[in-house]
Each structure stands twice: as C-alpha cells, then as structure tokens.
Amino acid sequence: MTAFLSLIGRETLAFLERGGRMGIFLVASLASVVKPPFKLDPVIRQVHFIGAKSVFVIVFTAAFTGMVLGLQGYYTLRKFGSEGLLGSAVALSLLRELGPVLTALMVIGRAGSAICAEIGIMRNSEQIDALECMAIDPYKYLMAPKFVGGILAVPLLTFIFDVVGIGGGYMAGVLMLKVNSGSFFEGMYSSVAWQDVEMGIVKSFVFGLLIIWISAVKGYYVHMEKDGGFGAEGVSRTTTNAVVMASIMILVWDYLISAILL
Amino acid sequence: MTGTSSQNSLDIELIGVEKSFGPQKVLDAVDLPVAKGKTTVIVGGSGQGKSVIMKHMLGLVEPDQGEVRVFGRDISRVKKKELQEIRMHFGVLFQNVALFDSMTCFDNVAMPLRERTRLTGTEIRKTVMDKLEMMDLPGIEHKFPPQLSGGMKKRVGLARALVLDPKVVFFDEPTTGLDVHKSNEIYRLFYKTQSQLKYTAVIVSHDVPKIFKLCEFVALLANKKIQGCIPPDEFQRSENPYIRAFVETTMGTIYSSEREESDLYEFEED
Question: According to the model, what pLDDT value does residue A151 have?
C-alpha cells in the first residue's frame, strides 16, 4: 500500500517537474524571440529548412489527399444525388481539418525529428554548455530562430497544402469523374466562410508552435529524460518520443481548437 | 580572511563550496584561490569531482553551500546578465572539445565574435585567421570538425577559446586521448599563447609530471577537499598524507628515473 502511494507520489512529482520544465522552456524561448538583437539570417535558414525543404512532401501529400477526398466524396455524395456539393466538401475538410493537421504531421516527421535529434546531440556533446560558457544564450541562439521559423513556415505550408489539395480534388472530381466544373467551384464559393479559413490559420500557427516546442524541449533536456537511456540511444529514443508526443498533441489540440472556434 | 587581503591578485576564489549530487557528496568545504595571470592545475583521481569544480567556476553548476567568487563577485548570486558579462572574459577548452560539428572550423572560431562583438566581416575574418595561424592551423578553415584529427580539434577548440582574448582560460583535460607528441604540441601552444596573451589558466589534468613544469600552483582534490594549492616543488615535498600518496603513485617512476639520470651524470663527471 505504501509502495503504491509512493509510486503515485513519485509519478505525480515527475509529471509536474516535466511539465514545469517544458513550461519554463517555452517561456524562455518566446522571451528570447522578442528580445533584441534580431538576426534575420538564422530565421531565413530555419524557414528554408522547416518550410522550403518540406514543400515537395507537402505538395505530394496534398495532391493525393485532395484526390482521395474527391473520389470518396463523389461516391458518397452520389448516393444522395448531390455531386454538386463535392467542391464544398473537399474545400471545407481541407481548410478546416486536413490541411493544418496533415501539414503538421508531415512537418513533425521531416523537421521536428531533425530538430530534436540535432539539439539532443548538441546537448550530449556539451555544445550547449559551450554556448553558455561563451556567454551566448542558447535560447536566443538556437531556439528563437527555430520558433520563428516554425511559426512562419507551418502556416505557409498549410496554405500550399490547401491549394494543392483543392486542385487534387478538382482533378479527381471534375477531370476524372466528370462532376460539373461550375458546380464544383460554385459549391465551394457559397459554403466556405471566413470562419473556416480563420480556423485553419489559427490551427496552423498553434501547430507550428507546438511542433517546435515539443521537438526542441525534448532534445534540450535529453540528458534528463527519465527513460531515455544515454548517448546515441538516448537521442534516438527521445526523438521517437518527441515525434509521438508532438503528433498526439496536434490531434488533441486540433479537437480543442475546433471545439472552441465552432 | 585571506580572501579579502589578497583579493586583487585573485581572479577566482572558491570559499567553503559544498556540492552533492543526490545522496552523494562530491565537494565538502572546498577552498581554492586562482591567482591572476598564473596557471593553477587541479589534479586528483578520476571521479573525484575535478570537472565539477571547474563547472562551478563557469557558473554551470551552483554550489549547495559556500561562494564562488569570480572577479570579486559571487557568481551563484549574480543576475543572468551579469553572469553573461563575466563569461565574456572566459575561454573554455572542453574535455571533448565541444566544437559545433555542423559548422566549419572558421565558423566555429568566428562564432563568439559574431555573437558577442560588433566587428565587421573583414575584421572577424582577420581575427579568426590570426588565431588559426597562431595554432599552426593554416588552411583548415573550410573543414568540418569531424574531418580533423583529435589534436587538430583541440587546437581549433583552443583557437575558439582564445578568440575573444579572455582573462581566464579553462582547460578540462586538454590532452586526454592524445599521444605524447600531440600532448606536447598542445602544451607548447598553451605556453606560447599564455606568454603572449597573459591570461589566467585553470587546468584540470591527469598529465601529472609534465604539467608541473608549466604551472605556478598545484591543487590536489582528494577526500572531497582541496589539499593545498601550492607551487609544484613544494607540492612534491609536501607532508600532507594525501599529497604524498598522490605524488608517490603518480610520480614514482619519474623520481627514480631522475635519480638514475643524476647517477649517470655523476658517473660521467667522474
């Protein structure tokens, strides 16, 4: 019984400690973003890495997602004789849910894992200590450009995802399955409201922040991870951990933001 | 208190520093003065906490008890900004060098200049090339650290540590993993740069007889305390049981060979 109670206590304390660490990390990182001096160069490099280099994956994913939406939507809507709503179904599901969520998941796989591993290795080989000893703030130097880069890049990628996805839906629905092109676009115009676009934008900003936060904090504290192991194995497990945790958080927050904004 | 009377001549002073990691006490009332412009070597067995002492001086670890005074200020109590200012005067050569391995050597050495000063690109370039030249490392600026040998990495690390002309330079096991020849090379560069730049040096080392020729003070960390911070010749004659035990185990062979050598010379003179 006492063992059980102490287990609960230990786990709770560990949970609080981890949560506190993550919170402090986020506050320190965001504070470093707004603290001068501002350097454009590292931010551009991060936007390039997180954003530009993900464009191919995003376009590819978006095209097929849009096409499968067109295909599935067409056969479902045809049962009710309302193929004309295909455009609105494709656009709404992309703008509100699939665009931000799938973009975020792809960015986690491509950039989130890389950020976590990179920072974890820097921590393990004392490069972060070296930064501190050179009086260079690791938050300002390492984290701030990543946060800014992520918060800029994810919405931009989401925008690309939405546009390409709608193009994919058009291809599957109109070009292949011969839905009337006019009604495809007309349905879209009449049903998509600003709130739908807004929801997508809010989500993509929040997801950008979440991805960088979780990937970076996991890497930064790789030496404190309770079940992380050490050295190379520690980095690999922590990276896996970060990817899983970030993906779950994206889905949880996707629901929460939808519930709040709807 | 000795600390106040000799404060001007000390760059760093540990006063009654205690530190535990979990239940294990690593440092117990450690007092250690580091004299300005001199070389202080911290020796001791593995796992005794020599690096922990250095991390206290760098402000990477906070003491549980006691003070770590750097340039007269207690660095465990200063604000983050002040700590950054103090660290501006530090140069550190880490045990595993800790070069930024995804940057070229040039960028590694240039980084403190780019982040901490307002020098222009050409000035940075000149300073970095001078420092690399000083370390006998011409033509490697475009290489990445993993492409270099261990000794070269150490020299790039030293160039980076010295690039801001620091007042105090810390060396954590500067010759670990290097062969005799390369160790001598590092010590030669250390001697050369210190005579040029006049910095205070704190060295944690295992390289015992050799390091004695380069330093002014030797401090032995044993039994969680500093056993004397005294000149090397006094250190070798000390009556302190810990120091005697250390000298006997680490320098026994050197003593006998020196004796043999002097015997030899006497022979020749005869």
Answer: 95
Biggest alpha carbon–alpha carbon distance for chain B: 68
For residue B253, is it within any domain?
yes
Chain A contacts of B95, Cβ < 8 Å? 126
How far apart CA A198 and CA B123 sit, in angstroms, is: 49
Min CA distance, B84 vs chain A (Å)?
5
Q: Kindly identify which residue of chain B lies nearest to residue A37, measuring between CA atoms.
A: B115
**Contact indicator for B218, B230 with CB cutoff of 8 Å:** yes
What is the number of domains present in chain B? Answer: 1
Backbone phi and psi for residue B218, each to the nearest 5 degrees, phi listed first:
-120, 130
Sorted by where each begins, the domain ranges of chain A are 48-261
Strand stretches in B4-154, DSSP E: 10-21, 24-35, 39-43, 65-70, 73-74, 90-93
pTM of the model: 0.82
End-to-end CA distance of chain B: 54
* Residues in Cβ contact with A176 at an 8 Å cutoff, skipping those fewer than 6 apart: A70
Residue A31 has a pLDDT of 93
Residue-wise pLDDT tens digits, A97-155: 999 999 999 999 999 999 999 999 999 888 998 888 888 889 999 999 999 999 999 99
> Are B87 and A135 a contacting pair at CB < 8 A?
yes
CATH code of the domain in which B228 resides: 3.40.50.300
Give the DSSP letter string of A95-159.
IIIIHHHHHHHHHIIIIIHHHHHHHHHHHHTTHHHHHHHTT--HIIIIIHHHHHHHHHHHHHHHH
Please answer whether residues A78 and A181 qualify as being in contact, where contact means their C-beta atoms are separated by less than 8 angstroms.
no
Take residue B132 and report the two structure tokens written for it: 């690399």
Q: B127-162 burial by CB neighbour count: b if 16+ within 10 A, else e? A: bbbebbebbebeebbeebbeebeebbbbbbbbbbbb
Q: Compute φ and ψ for B70, nearest 5 degrees.
A: -120, 125
Residue B133 lies in a domain: no
**Nearest chain B alpha carbon to A141:** B115
| Min Cα–Cα distance to chain B from A40, Å | 13
Count contacts between A and B (CB, < 8 Å).
Answer: 51
β-bridge mates for residue B97, sequence order: B94
B116 within domain boundaries: no
pLDDT at A36 over 80: yes
pLDDT exceeds cutoff 80 at B265: no
Identity (one letter) of the amino acid at A193? A
